[in-house]
């Protein structure tokens, strides 16, 4: 679905992403993990066209089976090619309702956006599509709630819903558990697993219980370079990964952000809304 070759990003003297060869297969749920500053966000930004690489290429598979080079594509172009990112690139309209946020995203993704206001049928179709998505991400009961009033966990669900409205082939999930209370972790796991049933997913997530639970494959970055990859079991047992990142991790030993309260104003989502 997606592949990179020799992907490198330098910021002055710092190599944030270092010669990464990566491929995401059709139907795969792959997690990208690594310590703070390992280059995960930079890698996402290179995939989606937010940043241009210093060297290397990014390609997405076309429906015809060939590959299209998107190394220099804009975020708008990569989204049109089926590469969608939940979270940091998402612009949630805070005062609009949850339903409106998803409906507008569905409208924007369709080719009839400009005609829409003259076409009540199309408007209704996008609203129905939005309702189906809200049902899928577990927000049907919050359809009429203003987005800004949602809990952190529900905001993450909305961000995934907005990404789904773009009808993606590949979903890049950027810390869907950020700021979510420990009681809501199971809901986020269910959401990731459900989305992965019909999309290729690349997940960046710090909660190792989630990563080890949901992933088909785990890729470990350290100082911009891939230091290991394999099944969750293989990666967990890799001494290099233990030393660089996991530090003795055992299942269940890392919980969700225990400081999170999952209330709308808990102040843990300061990074929201940034592109
Ligand atoms: N725009 C920038 N200019 C200069 N340096 C940057 C820039 N963006 C990121 N970096 C640096 O690149 C390195 C990788 O950062 P990045 O945010 O990609 O890591 P990360 O793995 O996503 O970290 P975290 O888990 O903390 O989010 C860090 O040393 C960071 O300081």
TrEMBL record:
<dbReference type="GO" id="GO:0016887">
    <property type="term" value="F:ATP hydrolysis activity"/>
</dbReference>
<dbReference type="Pfam" id="PF12399">
    <property type="entry name" value="BCA_ABC_TP_C"/>
</dbReference>
<feature type="domain" description="ABC transporter">
    <location>
        <begin position="2"/>
        <end position="248"/>
    </location>
</feature>
<dbReference type="InterPro" id="IPR003593">
    <property type="entry name" value="AAA+_ATPase"/>
</dbReference>
<keyword id="KW-0067">ATP-binding</keyword>
<dbReference type="Pfam" id="PF00005">
    <property type="entry name" value="ABC_tran"/>
</dbReference>
<protein>
    <recommendedName>
        <fullName>Probable branched-chain amino acid transport ATP-binding protein LivG</fullName>
    </recommendedName>
</protein>
<feature type="region of interest" description="Disordered">
    <location>
        <begin position="251"/>
        <end position="275"/>
    </location>
</feature>
<dbReference type="InterPro" id="IPR032823">
    <property type="entry name" value="BCA_ABC_TP_C"/>
</dbReference>
<comment type="similarity">
    <text>Belongs to the ABC transporter superfamily.</text>
</comment>
<dbReference type="GO" id="GO:0005886">
    <property type="term" value="C:plasma membrane"/>
</dbReference>
<keyword id="KW-0813">Transport</keyword>
<dbReference type="InterPro" id="IPR027417">
    <property type="entry name" value="P-loop_NTPase"/>
</dbReference>
<dbReference type="GO" id="GO:0005524">
    <property type="term" value="F:ATP binding"/>
</dbReference>
<keyword id="KW-0547">Nucleotide-binding</keyword>
<comment type="function">
    <text>Probable component of a branched-chain amino-acid transport system.</text>
</comment>
<keyword id="KW-0029">Amino-acid transport</keyword>
<dbReference type="GO" id="GO:0006865">
    <property type="term" value="P:amino acid transport"/>
</dbReference>
<dbReference type="InterPro" id="IPR051120">
    <property type="entry name" value="ABC_AA/LPS_Transport"/>
</dbReference>
<dbReference type="InterPro" id="IPR003439">
    <property type="entry name" value="ABC_transporter-like_ATP-bd"/>
</dbReference>
């Amino acid at each position: 679905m997606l592949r990179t070759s020799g992907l490198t990003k330098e910021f002055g003297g710092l190599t944030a992403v270092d010669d990464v060869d990566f491929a995401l297969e059709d139907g795969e749920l792959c997690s990208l993990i690594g310590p703070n500053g390992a280059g995960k966000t930079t890698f996402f930004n290179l995939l989606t066209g937010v940043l241009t690489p210093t060297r290397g290429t990014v390609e997405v598979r076309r429906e015809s089976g060939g590959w299209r080079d998107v190394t220099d594509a804009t975020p708008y172009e990569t989204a049109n090619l089926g590469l969608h990112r939940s979270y940091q690139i998402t612009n949630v309209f805070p005062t609009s309702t949850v339903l409106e946020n998803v409906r507008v995203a569905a409208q924007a993704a369709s080719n009839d956006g400009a005609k829409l206001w003259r076409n009540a049928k199309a408007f209704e179709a996008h609203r129905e599509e939005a309702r189906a998505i809200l049902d899928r991400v577990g927000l049907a009961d919050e359809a009429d709630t203003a987005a800004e009033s949602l809990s952190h966990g529900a905001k993450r669900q909305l961000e995934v819903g907005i990404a789904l409205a773009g009808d993606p082939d590949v979903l890049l999930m950027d810390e869907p558990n950020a700021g979510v209370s420990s009681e809501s972790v199971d809901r986020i796991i269910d959401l990731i697993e459900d989305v992965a049933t019909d999309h290729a997913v690349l997940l960046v997530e710090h909660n190792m219980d989630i990563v080890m639970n949901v992933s088909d494959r785990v890729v470990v970055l350290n100082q911009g370079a891939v230091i290991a990859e394999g099944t969750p079991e293989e990666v967990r047992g890799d001494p290099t990964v233990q030393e660089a990142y996991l530090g003795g991790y055992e299942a269940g030993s890392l919980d969700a952000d225990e400081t999170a309260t999952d209330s709308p104003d808990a102040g843990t989502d300061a990074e929201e809304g940034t592109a």
